[in-house]
UniProtKB/TrEMBL annotation:
Keywords: Cell cycle, Cell division, Cell membrane, Membrane, Transmembrane, Transmembrane helix. The keyword Transmembrane helix applies. It is a multi-pass membrane protein. Residues 183-301 form the ABC3 transporter permease C-terminal domain. Forms a membrane-associated complex with FtsE. Residues 56-160 form the FtsX extracellular domain. It comes from Streptomyces gancidicus BKS 13-15. Its main location: membrane. This is Cell division protein FtsX. It comes from the Bacteria. One of its GO terms (cellular component) is plasma membrane.
Length: 305
């Protein structure tokens, strides 16, 4: 009987405040969709870091004859065979180095033509203008500075470049977008909580006569509060379900089909469905507990039971 009463009161409350309930559902759905999206973005950045940082190289570019005439770092002339041998030997002794690969001028020219053959500059370049280099794969990509300190400024070395620096700019942009999504999520969450509190108070005010009678006949505080709390929880759960649907559809249409980024951007290792599905229970639990707790604390002060 009591359960039937509580359920009937939930239905009455949701119908009486249909407009505000709709607003609660929409705000909860958007805020939790942004919350889930920011979690997935964080996972995507971590996945990309793990994938690309494992592939980045540190490049030591060696001086050629052209550099000797124009680059202050190569003022002592083009790199000699002895200098190249010493650089390679020193690299192989370093504990942070995994592998060392030498690229000749002819190989550098060939790779340049493959990547930038359509460039107007490509037709004017010759192999002797390209730079020899050592490509170093580190055991830990964060140890780039060890290589830079040891070889930057050495005779025969034009520059030391870390590909990780280029990736850091990309990851910095992605993390900035993630922070913006979190800020928007926080704003939407505040709006949702305010709507929940106002909806519960309006519902309680519209039924103040019933709650007054229930107090007089000795109903417990929880029994009086339960319909209002569950109204908020049901509205929140509907919003959470919509947020889960947004995430699933977003993953499907943006990555798999529709935009099909997984096919167009094959170099990016996108997160899988497992990452999405593991976030859904958290979103549903949040959508249920957050409105219920907000309603509980609002009612404690408003109903004074």
């Amino acid at each position: 009987m009591r359960a039937q009463f509580v359920l009937s009161e939930i239905g009455v409350g949701l119908r009486r405040n249909l407009t505000m309930t709709f607003a609660v559902v929409v705000s909860v759905a958007l805020s939790l969709a942004l919350f889930g999206g920011s979690l997935l973005m964080s996972d995507q950045v971590s996945t990309m870091k793990g994938y690309w940082y494992d592939k980045v190289n540190v490049s030591i570019f060696l001086c050629n004859k052209s550099d000797a005439e124009s680059d202050p770092n190569c003022a002592k002339g083009a790199v000699t065979d002895d200098q190249k041998g010493q650089i390679k030997a020193d690299l192989e002794k370093m504990s942070v180095v995994d592998t060392v690969t030498y690229e000749s001028q002819d190989e550098a020219y060939k790779h340049y033509k493959e990547q930038f053959g359509d460039s107007p500059l490509a037709s004017s370049l010759t192999p002797d203008q390209m730079q020899e280099s050592y490509r170093i794969k580190l055991k830990d990509p964060e140890k780039y500075q060890v290589i830079a300190t040891a070889f930057d400024g050495r005779d025969g070395v034009q520059s030391v470049q870390d590909q990780k620096g280029l990736l850091d700019n990309l990851f910095g942009l992605l993390e900035g977008m993630n922070i913006a999504a979190l800020a928007m999520m926080a704003l939407m969450l505040v709006v949702a909580l305010m709507l929940i509190v106002n909806t519960v108070r309006v519902s309680a005010f519209s039924r103040r006569r019933e709650t007054g009678i229930m107090r007089l006949v000795g109903a417990s505080g929880f029994y009086i509060q339960a319909p209002f709390i569950m109204e908020a929880a049901v509205a929140g759960l509907i919003g959470g379900t919509l947020a889960c649907a947004f995430l699933v559809l977003g993953r499907y249409f943006i990555i798999d089909n529709g935009l099909a980024l997984s096919e167009k951007l094959s170099l990016i290792n996108f997160i899988g469905w497992d990452a999405v599905l593991t976030k859904l229970p958290l979103i549903l639990a949040t959508s249920l507990l957050m409105p219920a707790l907000a309603a509980f604390f609002a009612l404690r002060k408003y109903l004074k039971v």
